[in-house]
Amino acid sequence: MRVLLVDDHALFRRGLIAVLEPCTDIAVVGEAADGAEAVRQAEELIPDVVLMDIRMPKASGIDACSGIKAAVPSTNIVILTISDEEADLFQAIKAGATGYLLKDNSVEQLPEAVRATFEGQSFITPSMATKLLSEFTELARQKPQTRDLPMAELTAREREVLKLVARGLGNREIGRTLFITENTVKNHVRNILEKLHVHSRMEAAIYALRTQMISGE
């Protein structure tokens, strides 16, 4: 797994490298000190996963997240920050992040986060996941919002995949459930994101909740 590290503190990047280096299945292929450089590096290196801070000069991690997803849609982004503000969490998800970790968490989680994100799962610090779950629960209580949502463009199989994404299943689990290959799942997820004009699986899950797809309605 090819990883790009993005943080404006060189010492912190050195620490991340020290944690990831012993992992034989993870290779740090580049570093960036600001959001603008992160987008350029992502375009050049095509990393599988980006570990990125939010508060940085020139361009924030949120702006860089949008830029990277536009330039290299296949790259998965994990936000690694000190910010536990809900606004940052939701903006990161909207911009295309598939993970959100707080820097004060155990560094042992980093390899696990990289692997999970690479496999198509979301990886979020428990305290932040609780905030996100509260938002999801509120959305699920609301009436379906179907106007102007492009549900008709999804195939029957894509709807099945989206329901499972909304339930938190990774690509491998979805493949086993639907008896299809993991690569086929990845293709379906990519098509779903394109058709719904969203950047991440979590945004797609929010869509499913707004339309009450998760309950099969």
Briefly characterize the structure.
This protein is of the alpha/beta class. It has 10 helices and 6 strands. Helix 3 links the parallel strand 3 (49-52) and strand 4 (76-81).
What attributes does this structure have?
alpha/beta
List the helices and strands and how they pair.
Elements: E1 2-6, H1 10-20, E2 27-32, H2 35-45, E3 49-52, H3 61-71, E4 76-81, H4 86-95, E5 99-102, H5 109-118, E6 123-124, H6 126-141, H7 156-166, H8 171-178, H9 182-196, H10 201-210
Parallel strand pairs: 1-2, 1-3, 3-4, 4-5, 5-6
Q: Alpha-carbon distance between the termini?
A: 38 Å
The general outline is globular
Biggest sheet statistics:
6 strands, parallel
If strands are numbered along the chain, what order do they take across the biggest sheet? 2-1-3-4-5-6
| SSE series | EHEHEHEHEHEHHHHH
The count of helical stretches stands at: 10
pLDDT averaged over residues: 83
Please report which band the strand proportion falls in: under 5%, 5-15%, 15-25%, 25-35%, 35-45% or over 45%.
5-15%
Low-confidence segments, ≥5 residues, pLDDT <50?
A: 144-149
Over all CA atoms, what is the radius of gyration? 17 Å
- Summing up helix and strand content along with how strands pair, one would put the structural category as alpha/beta
Helical fraction: 40-55%
The beta-strand count equals 6
